[in-house]
Amino acid sequence: MLASRSWLSRPFRERSTQIFLGVLLAALAVVTLLNLIVPAGHPLHVSTYTVTLLGKYLSFALLAVALDLVWGYLGILSLGHGAFFALGGYAMGMYLMRQIGDRGVYGDPVLPDFMVFLDWDRLPWYWHGFDMAWFAFVMVLLAPGLLALVFGFLAFRSRVTGVYLSIITQALTFALMLAFFRNEMGFGGNNGLTDFKELLGFDLRSDATRLGLFLASGLALALGYVLCRAIVASKLGRVSVACRDAEARTRFLGYRVERVQLFVFVISAMLAGVAGALYVPQVGIINPGEFSPIFSIEVVLWVALGGRGTLYGAVIGALVVNYAKTVFTGVMPEAWLFALGGLFVVVTVLLPKGVAGLLASLRRRRDDGASETPAQGASS
Questions:
Q1: Helices within the chain (DSSP H only)
Q2: How far apart are CA 25 and CA 22, in angstroms?
Q3: DSSP secondary-structure letter at 206?
Q4: What are 311-338's pLDDT values in tens digits?
């Protein structure tokens, strides 16, 4: 019991975790106060639209942390984490669709509108249970977790590594995208799932619900970050880094590398599923486009920009890139991808360790300067 408590409490003793949680909680509090207390016409007022946009950014940040856990500390460059994100989103979307009931366009109390339009006469078996919140929330974790378990077991047992593993993960998400585009799959085809009404009885269009989802996204990011820090700071994390840096030597020492890889990979996939589940009610839609390999590659760019192997750097990268995307797509939508590519080239050349590496370098220079000043004063 004491060892378990030490494992869970260790991240809270780290200065980086304390700073991260402090900044995150302060940001959540400030945005909430500026939205609720400051009048709508005031320059400091944060609109509900901005709150929803920030909540989407926070869900993307949780996805980036999940990817950084496997890429930064395990050495697995996954180009398919968008699949786990989308599966969690679809699980939440199925629950939200069942909550519409007879308020849909066709008024069917059981079948979603797209099934009525396609002349389905009964609800598919895999849709049963999604009218219950607890079942849907379990599936948010279980669906991406099971996919990661099966995929990881086959890949890691076969010792597929490096670029080959990255290509396989990309093929996985591409295959799922093609499957979910088919109307016969029963997930809305090209249009996906949309027209949601309520979540746990709360109107999704109300300002209070939007603010609640923003706070839930921030809380999930905080918990996900702490969980990842606990894993990284534990013996499992040290073995994971050993697998990343010297897999053959780690095997020679007697560690079951494939089990370590599989466990961390499944945890990462489940965190990505939670991020997807928080994303869907805030944007109001989930479609097969979330399975796109381009999206998964974009997530890799977030982590690379922020700083691989730091966790907080992944959060910085996700926030910076998505804010830039919002700005650039509004100003020059056709040039956004070129701007993203240019940003990645600049970071790769000038900041190979990302923004987090730059911050660490500046902190070391400051500490070195502070240590040299007393020594110079003593010599004079």
A1: 2-9, 15-36, 48-72, 81-98, 113-117, 133-157, 162-181, 207-233, 235-245, 247-252, 257-283, 293-306, 312-331, 336-350, 354-379
A2: 5
A3: S
A4: 988 999 999 889 888 887 777 777 777 7
